[in-house]
Structure formats: structure tokens, C-alpha cells
Amino acid sequence: MSSTNAKHPELSAIFNKDEARVDWHDETLWWVRQKRDKAAWTVPEWEQLRETASAIKNNVLSNLHDYLMEFEEKAKANGVIVHWAADDKEHNEIVHAILKENNVSQIVKSKSMLTEECGLNEYLAQNNIDVVDTDLGERIVQLANEHPSHIVLPCIHWKKEEIGELFHQHLNTPKGNSDPQFLAGAARIHLREKFLTRKIAITGVNFAVAATGEFVVSTNEGNADMGAHLADVHIACMGIEKIIPERKHLGVFLRLLARSATGQPITTYSSHFKKPNINQTMHIVLVDNGRTVQLGRESFRNSLKCIRCAACFNTCPVYRRSGGHSYHTAIAGPIGSILAPNLDMKKNADLPFASTLCGSCSNVCPVKIDIHNQLYLWRQEITKQGYSPKLKTVVMKVMAVTLSKPTLFNIGGKAARWVIKYLPFMVNNRLNPWYKQRDLPAPPKQSFTEWYKKNRK
Amino acid sequence: MSSREKILAAVKINQPALQQLPALEELKAIQYENDFAQFKTVLTTIGGTLVEIDNTNEITEYVKNNFTNHQNYVTSLPELSEIKMLDEHLDPHFLENIEVAIVNAVFGVAENGSVWLTDVEMKIRALPFICQHLAVVLHKKNMVSNMHQAYALIGENDYDFGVFIAGPSKTADIEQSLVLGAHGPKTMTVFIMN
């Protein structure tokens, strides 16, 4: 994703330079989290629903081989062409081959985090294919040469004035107009022309039903449908973990998805694609790209239950204050931090540390993934493999020795209180990242042990 | 070995021991005393409009009074004789300028204000998405409380394409400001036939 090798702390530091903006970002996402709570509270059986969704996904992971075979068979019987891609490269090549076969060099694409994960846009651009992302938020970041910073709200880090300026440059809207209604209207006109002229549309997949071979795509804008129904060729790209057993299970997931994501009772459109449209060709690309490896990691396979609602992003105190781009992966936030080390442990070794382990992510997850436990387990795995941040490893070792020896702990505590009081610059300096955007409270006069000894009567 | 074989083999080796599917019957899903009242509340909250009618003539009258560009109305309902009948063999690109599309909906879902329709009702898949304003007709009795009941009704129905539509197309991508009419219809009217 990111072309540099900068890690979460450095990238967060860039985001944290503008304190007012961080507050705005934080509050906006917390507001979305609160909408999620309100929506969840309207469903008395919410916890039972989460438990059921989790159990369905556990069944899916335990029987994925047969479900994939069944899905393929049913999809083929429906007249859909099914492809299998072992990794990102093969996925991109399959898509490109379909475009070449049809002599098409301009396509529309609705939101698909999988194609982001595979770097499809970059790959196609190198092959002179013009890809237009049609989700408004994705189009905005695409025009700005960026990647989405959030999987549901791709341009949550952009202010409307900046979008106004971006549209002025790219869509010729009047300078200084930053009214959301007006800008969305300009994008509507701009993208309608694309929908009506492009011959191939790519969409993602939210759920694929093994028993029927159909797949469901959820959007609010209607962009997946506008693309797919007006194109000669529809390519749907999905990770192999998107399978669910039967149609009736959609009832469980569609009740959870939008409520968890944005607090809506359901997305505007939940489209069930079963057979190709008249005179249309429909392709499904089933992608592994590390998923089978993750399936084999007992501690981490639960991450494959994710339905990409982003509730864990919106509730995460670290995500809200560091921004999506600080995670340098297609999928940011807590869930991204447990998915990314599977793809590249060394490159993403910093991400499981970008968390307070407060557990809020696990509490809002609609499929009950134990995200904070997995973050903790990844830290151990990464340290064992020797990829943990060097300074952190040294500090942790010193801490381990200190905490295991009471005398050393007491001396250390006394020394620290003295230093903070008389030589604060010793700790409050640029070598100590804790002091970025933080201040220490005044040091106490005595430790708890000292206080207890004195007051114990 | 092809990627298909490789992936399937890797899945087989790595998938955990079989875990049973939960029985959905045990889910005590919400039931409303009055599904219609709940449907109306939710639909209105998500930006839709509900109009109660006693006969189909009221539909024609309502759309003519509430929308412009009268020549660009289209319907798949033969009983709306004053409105142009949709040619189901039309290239969907020619629907670009449709102002109002009026189609049947199979049933409504009270918990989320959505309606279910398939290609049988819409005739052309692009129609309910490309029109500027969407209107659906629903019989008051065709209403369920929740999505589990919705899928029980759909059952094994062999549609080619089906969709739950809940209100007008919308986006909140610009600073979380809600805008109705992202790419699809700017309004959605549900005519409830008493």
C-alpha cells in the first residue's frame, strides 16, 4: 500500500500534527459509533444475533472446502464463469485477461476492499486501463491519488472544503463551493456518464451463498447496481471466506451489517445476483491471497469471520486519533492489524502494537471476533519471530527484570518520582514517544507501598 | 496443480474440525404488534415516503401532482393505463432519462423499511436504480416484521436477480452529511394499497 517503509508511530505523528483535525476525526467517528449503538439497541435479540452470526461463520470456516465446491457448482449452473486466484498477482491477471478478451480499456468499479488489497487499480493503470471508482468516497480519494482511509467511509479524513477544491480541479465545479449536496450532485452527473459508457463493471461481494450460487452486494449509493446492470460484463471479486451456507443466513448478516457499520437498519440496496443479465457475461473471481494460511493459524483464523462493517474502526481510540493511513495497509483499524501480519509479518510488525488492547473492538464486532486477544497474540508471535520494534523489546526486557524483583521495583519507583519532579527533561524529551501529545500528572510524594506501611494500623 | 486445486487442498488441510450450524429457529427475533406502523416509521426515517391508497387511479394522480417531466414516466403495471408501459426488451441505457418508474414490490419488511422485488417485478434490472424517482406498489397485507421472516417468504424462489430496497439512494461520504440521490433515485415512494 504505502510506498515508504514508515511505520504506524511515524505515520500517526504526521496525522497528529494538526490537533484540531484529530479532534474532528475522533468526534466524527465516535458519532458513527454512537449511531451503531442506537441501532443495536432497537434489536432486543442483538446479542443472540451476534452469537448466531459467529456460530454460522465458525461453521463456514470448518466446512469451507465443501461450501466452496458447492458454490462453484451452483454458480456455474447459474451461467456464471468462476475463476480461482491463489494470490493478488493472479487475481489481477485474471481481471486483466477478461478486459483484454473483451477489448475494453475503460471500466467502472464499485467498492471492493479485496481489489484494494490486491492493488488492482495500480496494476491495471500500468497496463493502460482506466478504472473509475464509483463509490463517491472512493472516487474522491482516487482523484486525490490516495487510498481509502476507512473501509466503509473511504474519505472520512477529508474536509468538505478540500473536496470542493478537488472537484473544482477535476470536475470543474465553481471554486469555493463546498456544499455536500452540490458536490454529490456534481459527482452524480460525472459518474452517470461513466456508468452509461463503460462496458465492464467490477463489484465486490458481501456474501456468497453456497446453496444457490448467488452473491449479495450491499451499497447505499446504488453504484454497484448502476455499474453491473449497465455493463456487458460483470466481474465480482471475492475472498474465499465470504461464503455462507444458505440463503436464510443472509437474514442474520443483513440485520447486523448496516447497523454495525453506520447505524442504518439496512443499506439502501441489498442486491442478490444469481444469474447473468440478458446478453451479459458474469464472472466471479475467488481469491485466496493468504486466507488459507490464516485458516491454518489456530489463534488467528477467527479474523476470517469479518464481514467488513468497520465497527471496530469507529470505536478504536487509536484509529480515531491516528487516521486510517497510519496503518499503511488496505484494511486499517483493529481488524486490519490482525489481518495484515498474516500477509507480511515483517512489514506489518508494528500494527498489532497500534492498540491499547482496551477490547472495545471485540465488544462491538457483529461476528464476535476476539480482535484484542488476537492483537495481543500477534505481539507475542512477532516478538518470537524477531520482528518487534527494537527499542520496545529492550524496554520490555528491562521492565520484566524490574517487575520480577521487588527491591529493584521500589528503587526504580523512587528514582522515577524524583526524576519527574526535579529533572523532567530527562523523560520528557523527544527520545520518549509517550510525551507526544501527552503530559504527565504531578508525581506522587510516595509510592503506594510507602503509603500503606505508614497508614496500616 | 491449478490454483483451484491448490486452494481447495490448502483449505481442506487447514480448516478446523466441523462445527455445527446454529438453528435459526432458536433466534427470538423481534415481532411488531403493527408491522405497517413500524414500516411507515422506519421508511420515513430513512428518507422514503409512504402514501396510502384505495385504488390504482390514485397512483397516477399522485405522481402527476408530485413530479415533473410527465412524458418520462414508465411502469410495469398494466392497470396504470395512463402511464407508459415499460418495454421489457429495451436496452437499459435508454432508461437514462426516466423520471419516475412505478413497479410492484413483493413484500415489505417492518424492521428496516425495505421492500423486496425481483426481475419479475422490475422487468429490466437497471430500472429501479437508473430512474430519478422510484415508486413501488405494495399490498398492506404483504408485510413481515423481520428479515428472517423475509427469507422464509422468499424461500427457494428461483429469481435471477432480487433486491431489498430501503429508501432513496444516498451518500454521506462528504463529512457525514446525508445527501439523497447519490447515483440512483432521489426519492422513493411506497404506495400502500389498503
> What is the gyration radius of chain B calculated from CA atoms?
20 Å
Strand content of chain A: 5-15%
Mean pLDDT of chain B: 96
Mean pLDDT of chain A: 94
Number of helices of chain B: 6
User: Biggest interface pair, residues each?
Assistant: A-B, 88 and 70 residues
User: What fraction of the residues of chain B are assigned to beta strands by DSSP?
Assistant: 15-25%
Could you name the CATH topology of the domain at 43-289 in chain A?
Rossmann fold
List the helices and strands and how they pair.
The complex is a heterodimer of chains A (457) and B (194).
Chain A: H1 8-15, H2 19-41, H3 46-62, H4 64-77, E1 81-85, H5 88-101, E2 106-109, H6 113-117, H7 120-126, E3 130-133, H8 136-143, H9 160-171, H10 180-197, E4 200-203, E5 207-209, E6 215-219, H11 223-230, E7 233-239, E8 243-244, H12 249-261, E9 269-273, E10 281-287, H13 291-296, H14 311-315, H15 317-322, H16 333-343, H17 360-364, H18 371-384, H19 390-404, H20 406-422, H21 448-455
Parallel strand pairs in A: 1-10, 2-3, 2-4, 4-7, 5-8, 7-10
Antiparallel strand pairs in A: 5-6, 6-9
Chain B: H1 3-14, H2 35-45, E1 49-53, H3 57-66, E2 73-75, E3 100-104, E4 107-109, E5 114-118, H4 119-122, H5 127-130, E6 133-139, E7 143-144, H6 147-154, E8 161-165, E9 170-171, E10 179-180, E11 187-193
Parallel strand pairs in B: 1-11, 2-3, 3-6, 4-7, 6-11
Antiparallel strand pairs in B: 4-5, 5-8, 9-10
Structural description of this entry:
The complex is a heterodimer of chains A (457) and B (194). Chain A is an alpha/beta fold. Helices cover 51% and strands 10% of the residues of chain A. In chain A, strand 5 (207-209) and strand 6 form a beta hairpin. Chain B is of the alpha/beta class and 194 residues long. Chain B has one domain (34-193): NagB/RpiA/CoA transferase-like (Rossmann fold), CATH 3.40.50. Chain B has a 5-stranded parallel β-sheet with strand order 1-11-6-3-2, with helices on both faces. A 4-stranded mixed β-sheet of chain B has the order 7-4-5-8. Chain B has a two-stranded antiparallel sheet with strand order 9-10. Chain B is globular. Chains A and B meet through helix 2, helix 3, helix 4, helix 8 and helix 10 of A and helix 1, helix 6, strand 8 and strand 9 of B. Strand 9 (269-273) of chain A pairs antiparallel with strand 8 of chain B.
